[in-house]
Write a structure and sequence with these properties.
This protein has 2 helices and no strands. The protein is an all-alpha fold.
């Protein structure tokens, strides 16, 4: 893994992309996975209850994906900040 300005630029680009598209990606993943995951569970259910479960399950799945993407954004931001602040100087020690 590279250190320095290239890595900081790479992490900053990831953070910008996730900030811009996080909601769209989370909703898209939830819309695709919700029916796929829940259809096997609700084959014998009436149509109304199946639809209600798809909507509720999709909302929960959207929230989970959104949370995971926000955590990834926070990790990228933290690593970029640590690399930007690290200048190779030793830690300061205060002596009386």
């Amino acid at each position: 893994m590279t250190q320095g300005p290239e890595r900081i630029d790479q992490l900053a680009a990831r953070v910008r992309w996730l900030d811009r598209y996080r909601r769209v990606v989370a909703i898209g993943i939830a819309m695709v996975l919700s029916p796929a995951l829940l259809s096997a569970l609700t084959d014998e259910w009436p149509r109304f209850f199946r639809g209600a479960l798809f909507i509720t399950g999709g909302a929960v799945l959207w929230w989970i994906v959104e949370t995971v993407l926000a955590a990834a954004t926070a990790l990228f931001e933290t690593e970029a900040e640590q690399l930007a602040r690290d200048r190779g100087l030793p830690r300061a020690i205060v002596r009386k």
